[in-house]
Amino acid sequence: MKNETCPNCGSTEIIPVLRLEHNGILEKTEDNLYVELAEPEPTPRPRFWIQKNQRAGLRLSMCGNCGYCEFYSLEYSLMLEAYKKGYRSKRRATRKVC
Ligand SMILES: [Zn+2]
After folding, report:
1. 61 with 14: CB under 8 angstroms?
2. What are 34-85's pLDDT values in tens digits?
3. Ligand 1 geometric centre to CA of 73 (Å)
4. How far away, in angstroms, is 10 Cα from ligand 1 center?
5. Could you count the other beta carbons within 10 Å of the beta carbon of residue 26?
6. Whole-number Cα distances in Å, 71 to 2, 45, 58
7. What's the CA-to-centroid distance between 52 and ligand 1, angstroms?
8. pTM of the model
């Protein structure tokens, strides 16, 4: 929708490149919110190996008529390239409840 028509109301009054903000503590990065893919671990795992990551900042477009919003990224081709190489989202460590 970033340069098109709102799928909700049909308006062409689209605000295309909105940076997402967050009130919490964030890592230092140009894009406050992002998605990330991590390189698969090679087998056998080398003694010294540093996992590579591909990160894509998230942007948002908003309909100026009804407020409908969509996420998109400017780094989509890098993410697709990494995905085709086997990169996947990391799993967050689960918290243990004491
Ligand atoms: Zn709309």
Report:
1. yes
2. 889 999 999 998 999 999 999 998 888 999 999 999 998 889 999 999 999 9
3. 20
4. 6
5. 12
6. 9, 36, 6
7. 39
8. 0.70
